[in-house]
Design goal:
It is a single chain. The protein is of the alpha/beta class and about 150 residues long. The protein is about 45% helix and about 15% strand. The protein folds into two domains: about 30 residues; about 100 residues, Rhodanese-like domain (Oxidized Rhodanese, domain 1, 3-Layer(aba) Sandwich), CATH 3.40.250.10. The strands form two sheets. It has a five-stranded parallel sheet with strand order 1-6-5-2-4, with helices on both faces. Strands 3-7 form a two-stranded antiparallel ribbon. α5 links the parallel β5 and β6.
Amino acid sequence: MGLVLAASAVVLLAAGFWIKNRRERRLLDDHTITPEALHALLDAKKDVLVLDVRQPLDVLTDSQIIPGAKRLDPQDVMNNPSLIPSDRDSVVYCTCPSDESAQIILRQALDLNISRAKLLKGGLEAWKAKGYPVEPYTKPFHLDTGT
């Protein structure tokens, strides 16, 4: 009898995690934009703030940025998600596997009811793969060495 109850609890727990993950995935999908859609918005001169939230080492490795994008250190945005405006459309991107940094920042923004924020699907790599323009990033930035 105890084994049946334990197995039932495990099944219920797994179902709960599955439902939560599915709900979160749907929320992220609703706040994702493709490179093509972002390019169309920028070409149409729509008021969209593009935020490069790559890790400093990623910027050092590939010092290109989407034209007009503003670079923000991801740690600064994670500590202060209000750096993402609530009164205008914004798109965050990075170069992490699975857009990890941008997803974390998007989740924090959505938790603060900053509902006009979106994630660029595939990040800078997907943007460049479509042949869309990039420009050199030449502004200084802090490289945290952990000391």
